[in-house]
Every structure is written in structure tokens, then in C-alpha cells.
Amino acid sequence: MGAGAFEARLARLRVRMVEAGVDLVALAPGAHLRWLTGFSPFADERPCLALVGHRGAGFLMPVLNADDVRQHSDWPFWTWADDAGPADALAEAIAALGPVAAVSLDEAMRADHALLLLEALPGARRSFAAETVGHLRLCKDATEIAALRENARIADLAQAALRAAIRPGVTERAVADAARAAFRAEGAVPEFTIIGTGTNGAFPHHHTGETVLAHGDAIVCDIGAKKDGYYSDITRMACCGALPEGYAEVHAVVNAAVEAALAAIRPGIRARDVDAAARAVITAAGYGDYFTHRTGHGVGQEIHEPPYITGVSDVILAPGMVFTVEPGIYLPGRFGIRLEEIAVVTETGCEILSTLSRAVHVA
Predict the structure, then answer these.
(1) How many CB atoms lie within 10 A of CB 64?
(2) Phi/psi of residue 226, each to 5°?
(3) Where are the transmembrane segments (predicted)?
(4) What are the structural domains, with CATH classification, of the chain?
């Protein structure tokens, strides 16, 4: 993205600040700041904040990092050194940016940095950046969706690579390594490779390890990586040899839950209605107690970001929102099944980014 695109985002943020009644947005190094400026400074225990007011913006910056960050931004800097501390520089920044009756804080900011800022703004009303920058990040533009679509293509290739590695006697880690190598071959950085074989599949966030795949094991394959600032996330199922007893029935229920959730997606409905559509299918089949997590989460510059597709979310879906649909059934001591798509809300429904069938792969 060019500089003009980030200037447009800053302008949109200022409009949103007026709508939200916010005078100052304070961002820590992280996803909000990367979305707004295209980069994120080095983060450590030293306070480093991007401060955006209605007419000005700049960085509270440790002096030892300032020259490096100046290569990425022409914003003004209020620098401070370790022998003096940040208090005076922060006071200068606030004075330069104008009166602050309400401040919007990055949710990912360190607590000590947030308290430092709030102590410098006595009496200011505070809220989180979910209502400012986060509000703008909810709906992806065409460039962002293209990046997510490319990441989904790569994730499909990584699923094919891990499937080729499945056979009795190999470890979960060996299968995960095949996926990781496929991601790297496409220029993506692996973020997670959850391979849960047999009874390990009943743990939704199993830690991939040295468990050996055996004939008749069902295998949860949940993988994702990052390229060009955006993430992939896909879960498919494989079986080593033969399907376990009862597997086909449960797989059909989970797939039907995915289809029901996807069919429910359209602008104007609540996120909780998508969760309800998936959950109703699984509950009706008698497995409601074994669907133990939300139906999905947003995907973008973070692997988990809003909107969250939960039973209590009143977020109204709009075109450009991107999130996973990943219902699952986890039967302790037997196996788990999760099937996951990334959906983009369109004007009339949704687009699925993966082109890989959800049918179980039998190795």
C-alpha cells in the first residue's frame, strides 16, 4: 500500500473520533498501529505510543529507537531517554495535541504504559480503541481481502502437503513440519500447526507433539500462517487408514453445521445468529454438550480479532467483514472433528476463501 492509503486511513480515523466523541487515540506497537501506518515500532518495557489528535499526530518514542522509526514516518517525535524518563516528553505531546476530555486506548497496550498516560490525563473519559481504530478495521477493503484470499490459497497447499505426510508410524510433529515447509515455500511465516491425532483431537487446542499416528486414527489438522501482514486459518480432517467407528456420522453433523452457519451469513444479521445456526444443528443431533467453543473469530492483521462469532455477540454483519466458521464436536477418549472456513461477508451473503473440500482425507 502506498502512503496515500495510510493518509486516507488517518483521515477516516479522525472522522470516527468525532463520531465517538474522542479527542486522543493512543496506540501501542501492534496490529492497530500497523493498520494505521503500515509499520509497528520495536516494543519493549519502554513507553512507546502513537498519539493521534484531531489536528496532529506523533510518537512518544524512546530516543534509542527514534532514528530507526523516522525511516518509516514523518510524524513528529517526542523523545525521551532512559536517564530522564518519559514524563516530560509525554506532557509535551499532550500539550501539543490539545485538550483531551476523552482518550481511546489500545487494548493491547501494556498496563503500566496505559496508567502512565491516564495519570497524565486526570479526569479524561477513557474507552478502548475497539471503538475507533478497531471499528474501522472491522470491514476489510479490496486490498486486504486480496491478501487474505492469497493466504487462503497458500493454506490449501499446506493442507495438501501435510496430507502427503500422513501414514502410520509418523509423529504429529512430522506432519506439522510438512505444513510448515509448504508455508515457507510460498513466502508465508507459519503461525500455528495443530495436528491432533486420535484421542488428542478431542482437545480443541492440542499442543502438537510426538504422538505417533496409528491406523484408524482421526486427525484434526488446524493450520495458519502470515504473509504480507495478513493471516490464514483452515481446519480439515484426515484419517489414517480406516475411519473410526461412528466417525462418518459426526463428520456429517459438523459439516452440516458449517453449511448452516454459512447460509445464515448476510449483511444486517447479528454475529450471534451465525453462531446459533451452527449450534442448532449440533444440538439437534445430540452433540450440543461437545461443541465447547464459539463458532468463529475475525481474521486479518491478527489471527484472532473482531468480529467474534459467539452466542452473545450483537455485532451487525456488514460487507467486508471477514471471520472463520469453525464448529466442532469433541468426544473425549475417542476423537474430535472441526471443519473451518474463512468467510467474507458480501452484499448478498458470503464468499468462502478456501477451495479445498471439507470431505475427510483418508490416507
Answers:
(1) 12
(2) -125, 135
(3) none
(4) 3-137 (3.40.350.10), 142-362 (3.90.230.10)
Query: What type of residue sits at position 352?
Result: I
Rounded to whole angstroms, the Cα distance separating 115 from 102 reads 15
Q: Does residue 42 contact residue 26 with C-beta atoms inside 8 Å? A: no
Phi, psi of 144 (to 5 degrees): -65, -45
Residue with cell 447479528: 270
C-beta neighbour count of 111 within 10 angstroms = 7
β-bridge mates for residue 195, sequence order: 221
Per-residue pLDDT of the chain (363 residues; tens, 9 = 90+): 777 899 999 999 999 999 999 999 999 999 999 999 999 998 999 999 999 999 999 999 999 998 898 998 999 999 999 999 999 999 999 999 989 999 999 999 999 999 999 999 999 999 999 999 999 999 999 999 999 999 999 999 999 999 999 999 999 999 999 999 999 999 999 999 999 999 999 999 999 999 999 999 999 999 999 999 999 999 999 999 889 999 999 999 999 999 999 999 999 999 999 999 999 999 999 999 999 999 999 999 999 999 999 999 999 999 999 999 999 999 999 999 999 999 999 999 999 999 999 999 999
Cell numbers for 141: 477493503
